[in-house]
Amino acid sequence: MGTKILSYNVNGIRAAVKKGFLEWLEAAQPDVLCIQEIKALEEQIDTAAFEALGYKHYWHSAQKKGYSGVAILCKQSPKKVTFGTSIDHIDFEGRVLRVDYDAFSVISLYLPSGTNTARLDYKFQFMDEFQEYINKLKKEVPNLVICGDYNICHEAIDIHDPVRNKTVSGFLPEERAWLDRFMQHGFVDAFRSLNPDPHHYSWWSYRANARANNKGWRIDYTLVSEPLAPAIARSYILPEAKHSDHCPVGVELNISAS
To answer: Which of 31, 91, 121, 149 is an active site residue?
Structure first.
């Protein structure tokens, strides 16, 4: 038995549900689904709908209403759930949630975007402290899958126009260098490990018909720790799912959760 892990920035879980998200989930049948940018508190969400599809659900919302937040849906109950990182500013915005199984652990991550100077400075602070957090965590939890919206295109192949976007947050040399270092600390980009070809993206602007023209960015990843890399059976992007300006990304591992 393998494990199918999907990750999806839904840009508002309630809005996504209105666009057919539950029907998609029922058809997709992931064993674990990491969700980012839920933009809701748990009590604002119809959680019974997820339970009806056979999922346990865990929500880590931002303190600010209608903003950020992550969640994980699981078919099999994890042995442990960790809400946040114990780093106050990260947890205040609801950006990290982890479930542990015997064979591996899965993190749903929503890394900040650098929409202005202040937020770009904060993004770099977050990245530095998240790196330290993961370095320590891996000593305790070596088999780790970090799924989510990293808000960074790693290489030129991951963005439709690398030349014009080289000064835009999400493709800045400093951001890309951080992702380089993060992976050098023991992670494999599951999608790129099996898919070396271009024109695969996970986010498109709502402007200028970008999605129809496939003028996108690959900023959503499933990063798998090196001890788990041999278990990667499949990795893919699902651009036909259209409940958000992002689409789901997935990895399938040749190991079961138990």
So the answer is: 149
CATH number for the domain that contains residue 39: 3.60.10.10
Cβ neighbours for 19, distance < 8 A, ≥ 6 positions apart:
242, 243
Residue 65 lies in a domain: yes
> How many folded domains does the chain comprise?
1
Question: Which of 221, 227, 225 minimizes the C-alpha distance to 108?
Answer: 221
Tokens of 32: 């674990």
CB under 8 Å to 8, separation ≥6 — which residues?
33, 34, 35, 36, 220, 241, 243, 244, 246, 247, 248, 249
Residue 258 belongs to some domain of the structure: no
The length of the chain in residues reads 258
Q: For the purposes of burial, counting CB atoms within 10 Å of the CB of 26, is it exposed (0-12), middle (13-18) or buried (19 or more)?
A: exposed
CA separation for the pair 88, 127 (Å, rounded): 14
User: Tokens in use for 175?
Assistant: 């951001």
pLDDT digits (tens, 9 = 90+) for 55-80: 999 999 999 999 999 999 999 999 99
Does 88 participate in catalysis according to the annotation?
no
- Asked whether residue 67 is assigned to any structural domain, the reply reads yes
Q: Which residue has the tokens 């919206």?
A: 149
Widest CA span of the chain, in angstroms? Answer: 47
User: How far apart are alpha carbons 108 and 121 in whole angstroms?
Assistant: 22
Section 93-107 average pLDDT: 98
For the stretch 6-50, pLDDT in tens is: 999 999 999 999 999 999 999 999 999 999 999 999 999 999 999
Cβ contact 249:35 at 8 Å: no
Range of the domain at 166: 3-253
Q: Which neighbouring-strand residues pair with 235?
A: 251
